[in-house]
Automatic annotation (TrEMBL):
It comes from Methylophaga thiooxydans DMS010. This is Phage tail protein. It comes from the Bacteria.
Length: 195
């Protein structure tokens, strides 16, 4: 919480020694001006200290966003277009909080963190114990999995975005690149759109 200039002025004046000379100086405009300028600088420093708390959080950083991105190797190599401020913050937060994993919920969460709503289908090879109407998948299908996504995912501009950002962006290239980069190497990843 920022402390106002007047509050700092009151605190500085309270630190002054007591006595006839000092009591008279408290009514001198030049003397008061010295303390007002000091109080103003202290209030500015206090406000910047509050700003630093926002900058220390990857969800709310603005001035230090470039430094955060450099520390976490962002922008992601899968991003080939200009990202909005909100997309950059979301990418940073996802990278900072990512613990890794290989489960279905992990990959769904990764997709959600970059703006995609998906489901995942796993395949298993067919055995004689399976239902008659189950597809006949061979042994290699047990290492395949399918990401089901809408045909196009559109990201719209937000009110708190910058004026030089596009009003909308779309495409699934980022989803494919990100999941291919994170998938277990021994698996085959298939994408199904709009189904």
């Amino acid at each position: 919480m920022a402390i106002k200039t007047q509050q700092y002025l009151t605190m500085l004046m309270a630190l002054m020694p007591r006595g006839l000379l000092w009591d008279d100086l408290q009514h001198d405009p030049d003397f008061i001006g010295l303390f007002e300028s000091t109080a103003e600088e202290l209030a500015i420093l206090h406000a910047r200290e509050d700003d630093l708390l926002d900058e220390a959080d990857p969800r709310t950083t603005y001035e230090m966003l470039n430094e955060w991105e450099a520390a976490y190797a962002l922008p992601d190599p899968c991003v080939d277009d200009v990202q909005t401020l909100q997309q950059r913050l979301a990418s940073l937060y996802a990278k900072v909080t990512n613990k890794g994993g290989q489960s279905i919920p992990y990959f769904i969460a990764i997709a959600e963190s970059i703006g995609y709503q998906v489901t995942i289908t796993e395949f298993s090879r067919w055995t004689v114990a399976d239902r008659v109407n189950k597809p006949l998948y061979g042994q290699s299908w047990q290492f395949a999995w399918q990401v089901n996504a809408p045909e196009e995912t559109i990201s719209y501009w937000r009110v708190n975005g910058r004026v030089d950002e596009p009003l909308a962006s779309w495409g699934n290239k980022r989803l494919e690149c990100t999941l291919h980069r994170l998938k277990p190497d021994h698996t085959t990843l298939i994408f199904s759109y709009g189904g």
